[in-house]
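Subject: for your reference before the review

Hello V.,

The reviewers asked for a structural picture of the protein, and I figured it would be easier to keep everything in one thread rather than splitting it across files. Below is the amino acid sequence we used in the manuscript, unchanged from the supplementary table.
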Amino acid sequence: MEPSARKMLEKQHYYIAGEHSGVKTCHWLKEKLLRRRVCYKESFYGIESHRCLQMTPALNFCNQGCIFCWRYHGFDKNGFGDCDDPETILDECIKGQRKLISGFKGDERTDPKMWEEATRPNQVAISLSGEPTFYPKLGEFIELCHKRGMTTFLVTNGTTPKVLENLDPLPSQLYVTVAAPNPKIFKDLCRPHISNGWELLNQTLDILPSLDTRTVIRHTLVKDWNFGWEREYAKLDEKADTDFIEPKGYVFVGESRKRMTITNMPSHQEVREFSERLGDILGRAVINEQKPSRVVLIGDEGMDTKLPGK
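And here is what came back from the structure prediction:
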């Protein structure tokens, strides 16, 4: 990793794990420890916010420059090269998480038992920054997490269909971000560094029904950019045939503030109304929502959304 990128990330409170991985405490981990407020993933899927490890094995590698992304965009462009082994990455990320939450132990608002649990994460969100499917040993990393009794959520931009098709084992839950309803908006909003990003995303949507794991489409909604177009999104969602769909409002935080304005944030009500229109087209329903995160869950009526074992 370039020294300038490392310095910037550490300034933003990332813990750099090895040569290309990192961990950062999620806002909702802190909220759970201090105020017992939980993230939407706990509400929807039953994972524990304070025991979730938010990390990435590809901290400084991405093939898109999404202008709504809150992450740092000073990515390396020279390929992955040598990579750390999965055990080193996981151990270092857990070590980093423990360091990052150490100060909460002395806060009188923190329950000691809950803090102790937080030092032993049992859920890995492979999503923090970069495109995690670039890591050549991703399957081995997921397998290691599962062997240690940890569930895994993998979030991808969908431009690596061959990786997903051959990934073994698959994560406990696979997210694909679909932040554009058509090629033009994809090019303008997601700003791919590759010429065939839209085609690759659609290849990923084509193979999703064949993958033997829980799948989710995430629509990140940005006012004045990609909001609306419900019928075009529905065509993509029908192709993907995922277990769940998560329309989620863009939030004006982090590095995105250099590229967007606060007016690009939709209200929760706007996200809810979009979700209802989309659900009607798909013949599915709004089955959960969390207002603080401006996120809605679309699925089939009566579905059990909890992750097995949670």
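For the response letter, the relevant points are probably these. DSSP finds eleven helices and ten strands in the chain. The chain has one domain: 3-299.

Happy to draft the paragraph if you're swamped.

O.
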